[in-house]
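Task card 7
Instruction: Convert sequence to structure tokens.
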Amino acid sequence: MLNREEWLLLVNEYKQSGQTNIKAFSTSRQVGYQAFRYWLQKSSLENGEVVIHPNVEKSKGKLLPVMIQGNANPKLHLNVNEVDVFLEANFDVSLLKRVVTALKEC
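Output:
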């Protein structure tokens, strides 16, 4: 079983890797998917990032609850069908539109 520091190192590795599939990443590192999601969310909240709660029912056209904690310049973390999207404060809006369009086609 991993300790807190090991989980946070794994979370940082995931964020730096550019991968978007949490399940594939956790499987490749031989850690539990749910446990990894927990630590990913915990780390994001502790760093003042915006997190969309993964247990909210997924349905088109509905707004999802968002929690903002920490600094006045938060990051945004979206999870759509097991795809994670991390956005910094000054993200490229046109790129986000292309990503959302691509996700809709999946």
